[in-house]
Each structure stands twice: as C-alpha cells, then as structure tokens.
Design brief:
Protein name: DedA family protein
Number of domains: 1
Number of strands: 0
Shape: elongated
Keywords: Membrane, Transmembrane, Transmembrane helix
InterPro entries: DedA_domain, VTT_dom
Structural class: mainly alpha
Helix content: over 70%
Radius of gyration: 17 Å
Largest sheet: none
C-alpha cells in the first residue's frame, strides 16, 4: 500500500489526505514523511496535504450541515432542548475546538458536529485550515530536521 500511494506522488497524497479527514479511519502523515524523505518539495507537499485534508474536513462538515436534522433526530435521537443547549455551548466554546480537528479519533467528529450545529463556513474554514496547516508544517519541519541530524551524525 505504501509503495502504491507513494508512486502516485502528489495526487496520491491529496487523495489520502482527503480520505483521512472524513470519517474513514486513515492517516496521511506517514505519506508526507515518506515524500519528504524522497526529496519532494516541502512547500508543495505541505500545501497538497493541507488542501486535501481541509477539503475532506469540509465534506464531513457538509454532511453534518445538510444531514444534520436526519442525524440528530432519526439516528442520534436528540431532542430539541438538548440540541439547543449543545448549540449554545458550541457557539460559546466549541467552534474553537476545530483548531484541533487534525487530531486522530476526535477530529473528524468535531467537523461533523460543526456542520450539524451550523458553524459559519468562514469560521469553520479558518479554524480547520489553521490547525491542519500547522500540523503538516510541524510534521514537515520535524521530518526535515531529523533527516538533517541523521545525515550529519
């Protein structure tokens, strides 16, 4: 699998990053590391991974936004009063949690809840983009710094 995705370069990275930001349990950091160690352009690698991951998160957000009533009423069986309390809490504190939407396990549901609770698209995009860009930038920096240290050692 590693060799297959790595052989597709940036399109493979985009696809994996996109899918990793949906409710499918995947990770894309390993491919970022592999591509950087294979001497791909660091800025392009971070940009492609961030773009794919943000678009995947936005897809999850849209599922929550437009499937929200069905999800909350039929599947999760949340009553109106509980939903309104959750909306007030999320409006006050919760949307900032989108900064950590890159975290495994909790990140994708945060994007889904952001859609269900109708977080504004601009706010959602800014918070998610900031968090995901920071994550891939740190992964790239650590990878390149580690490779330099190993080369010198």
């Amino acid at each position: 699998m590693h060799d297959l995705l790595a052989s597709f370069g940036y399109p493979g990275l985009f696809l994996l990053s996109f899918l990793a930001a949906t409710l499918i349990p995947l990770g894309s950091e390993w491919l970022v590391v592999a591509m950087l160690l294979d001497r791909h352009n660091p800025f392009m690698t971070v940009a492609v991974a961030t773009t794919g991951n943000c678009l995947g998160a936005f897809t999850t957000y849209l599922i929550g936004r437009y499937g929200g009533p069905w999800l909350t009423e039929k599947l999760l069986r949340i009553d109106t009063a509980t939903r309104e309390k959750a909306e007030l809490f999320y409006d006050r504190y919760g949307s900032w949690s989108l900064l950590v939407s890159w975290l495994p396990v909790v990140g994708d549901p945060l994007c889904l809840v952001g859609g269900i609770l109708q977080v504004g698209m601009r706010r959602f995009t800014l918070l998610v983009l900031t968090g995901k860009l920071a994550r891939y930038t740190v992964v790239a920096w650590l990878t390149l710094r580690g490779a330099d240290l190993l080369a010198k050692g």
